[in-house]
Amino acid sequence: MTKQEKIDSFNPNSAGLKDSNIYGLPFSNEESDIILIPVPWEVTVSYGSGAAQGPEHILEASYQVDLYHPQFPSLWKKGIGFQDIPEDMLMRSTALRQKATQIIEMWEDGMDVPNHPEAQAMQAEINKACEDMNAWVEKQVNHWRSKGKLVGLVGGDHSTPLGFFRANAQSNPGYGILHIDAHMDLRIAYEGFTYSHASIMSNAMKLPEIGKLVQVGLRDFCEEEVRVAANDERIAYFTDRQLRHSQFEGKNWKQQVDDIIALLPKDVHISFDIDGLDPTLCPNTGTPVPGGLSYEEAIYLLTRVGEERNVISFDLVEVAPGDDDWNGNVGARLLFHLCGVLAEKK
After folding, report:
1. In this structure, what DSSP letter does residue 124 have?
2. If exposure means fewest CB atoms within 10 Å of the residue's CB, which of 100, 194, 280, 314 is most exposed?
């Protein structure tokens, strides 16, 4: 059956079938215009865990998402494919997470980790494994793009899209990153881990091909990160407090979004850490922080960026299951909208 025949015979109003692709769609990955790469990795998380199960959790929740999107009514017809979750990566992440926890506890106990032979050996092993993960992601992105696909990433923790940033540097030099997050993630090799989730944007800005990093919703960061941002003219940020105070004094969200978009270059990658949202929307994420964007504020921002810039790719990270389906429910719907923003102009 051809893709068009599947479109003609598929009932988008029926319940999603779990033996089909993500969102219950009937298309294979080869038939889908959009490919999602799941990266079940959370080796260096320093507080709550569970992000490695995020891709599976979102996939399960996706079958409950209605396919009619008022803004993107034909999105489902494009096809959204979900690459198989690499179980070997998940197993490696789980094993290395235990070693990383030992190192983090040593730091917290005040031990001299840089001069501790056993800790240094474990850190070297972890850093090498993270580099392997980065190389795998870059390879997957380039593979699907060579087939003419639009590509998004579903993490995992926020260390996972570095390979994606590298692939974008090859294809779209000068591109910008719109980074929605509670955290700056500009720490330098946090806790000794070169590829820490808290260092993703520090590592990203080592790529000279990245023209601009615009961070939105920040509300938890350290002095080192502020100093890094102040010394790099490519970085601009909007803290949650700044945004709210400005709103209290009369500036509306549309005007603030105008300011955000004005700083972005033509080509944009959206890097969305779910803890950028109000934590009532993501209570199980690893490092929730009071404040944050409402769901509709986030959707409006993403929509406007899609309308006024060329969204080349995205990642959605730090969705963790917890004891209920809430984080996956929100994550699956946010992911569907991100797919619409990515595909709308293509």
Report:
1. H
2. 280
> Number of helices (H) and strands (E), helices first, in the chain?
12, 8
Q: Is the pTM of this model over 0.90?
A: yes
- How many distinct structural domains can be found in the chain? 1
pLDDT number for residue 50: 87
169: left (phi over 0), alpha (psi -120 to 50) or beta: alpha
With H, G, I as helix, E, B as strand and everything else as coil, classify residue 68: coil
Rounded Cα gap, residues 109 and 215, in angstroms: 32
| 306: CATH | 3.40.800.10
State the burial class of residue 51 (Cβ atoms within 10 Å of its Cβ: 0-12, 13-18, 19+).
Answer: buried
Cα distance between residue 156 and residue 161, in whole Å = 9
Q: Which domain holds residue 206?
A: 3-343
Structure-block tokens of residue 252:
């509306």
Quick: pLDDT tens for 214-240: 999 999 999 999 999 999 999 999 999
